[in-house]
Amino acid sequence: MKILAIETSCDETAAAVVEDGTKILSNQIASQVEIHARYGGVVPEVASRQHLLSIIPILRQAMAEAGVTCKDLSAIAVTVGPGLAGSLLVGVNVAKAMALANNLPLIGVNHLEGHLYANWLEDKSIDFPVVCLIVSGGHSDLVLMRGHGDYVVLGRTRDDAAGEAFDKAARILGLGYPGGPAIEQAARAGTTSIPLPRAWLRGSSDFSFSGVKTALLRLVDAGKVSSVADGAASFQAAVVDVLVAKTVAAAKERRVKQILLAGGVASNKLLRNWLIKKSPLPVLVPQPILCTDNAAMIAACGYYHLQAGEIDGLDLDVVPSLRLT
Ligand code: KG4
Ligand code: ZN
């Protein structure tokens, strides 16, 4: 069963073909990062227009790479939210047109659920229940997953998402956009640790990252950050410390079998390595290219919805503020 998926929730125009929810036949991504970098962040209208320009070429490339035509497809999956409304609309409208023209089922996918399903592209031996940490530009969700489509949100961020915090800290340190990879790169040269606070929020699985960002800003303004590398390394360590400790604590408390990591921030090596080191349970992490936005994860997720008979009508709409539960 081959599913074609489209992802246009933010600043990547992506299309992929995945077989049986696990085997990637193609995974094409047109990134707009360089276009938005000069503004220091994603400009929504620029993003929508860029999706319009890229979507058809990217779809053609994805189908050519997979060696399929519309006749070989079983369904069209598309991200409906969360994300930028104008960006989502481009993907959803193209998906609808393809579904209508080829009489194929249409499956609307939650982007956050899609991030989780990147793990199914790597490993078929996922054993429920699992605790999942989804860390992206807009979300930091700690979720108990008891089965396909069965989620209990244990905690989420009370202010900045982890990726957002990385992006803001990068700006404070004068590093480029997107901030996560820039901080990770700069941190490699760090030698001296700068004390930064951790918001443990005892007794809760929620996160808060605005305090550590403000603390970094105050220290930079006061000239107390010895170097950009030290600032980056200390900030990265402070964020990762809390993410890892809370995820491991939740997994132990819920007596789950595995931990799943997902979302753009999951491509951070310190987070990946630290979580694997501190967890007494197996930790599954997709390869970096499947952690950041892509359409293969949307196809993988769409497959399980199709299996469950969850198909959408052609009146499918975007939901920019969609949550997991
Ligand atoms: O999942 P994603 O690609 O898009 C959203 O759904 O938001 O995540 C993007 C976020 C950005 O905030 C980016 O700075 C962060 O993920 N990110 C990283 C790394 N790569 C991307 N954060 C830390 N370390 C990285 N290596
Ligand atoms: Zn994402």
What does this protein look like?
This protein has 325 residues and is an alpha/beta fold. 42% of the residues lie in helices and 19% in strands. The chain has helices spanning 33-37, 44-66, 85-102, 111-117, 162-172, 179-187, 210-221, 228-253, 269-278, 288-291, 296-307; strands at residues 2-7, 12-19, 23-31, 75-81, 106-110, 130-135, 140-147, 150-156, 258-262, 283-284. The strands form 2 sheets. A 5-stranded mixed sheet has the order 3-2-1-4-5, sandwiched between helices. The chain is globular, with a radius of gyration of 20 Å. The structure holds 5'-O-[(R)-(carboxyoxy)(hydroxy)phosphoryl]adenosine (KG4) and zinc ion (ZN). The site of zinc ion has 6 residues, from helix 4.
Keywords:
alpha/beta; single chain; about 325 residues; globular; binds zinc ion
Overview in brief:
The chain is of the alpha/beta class.
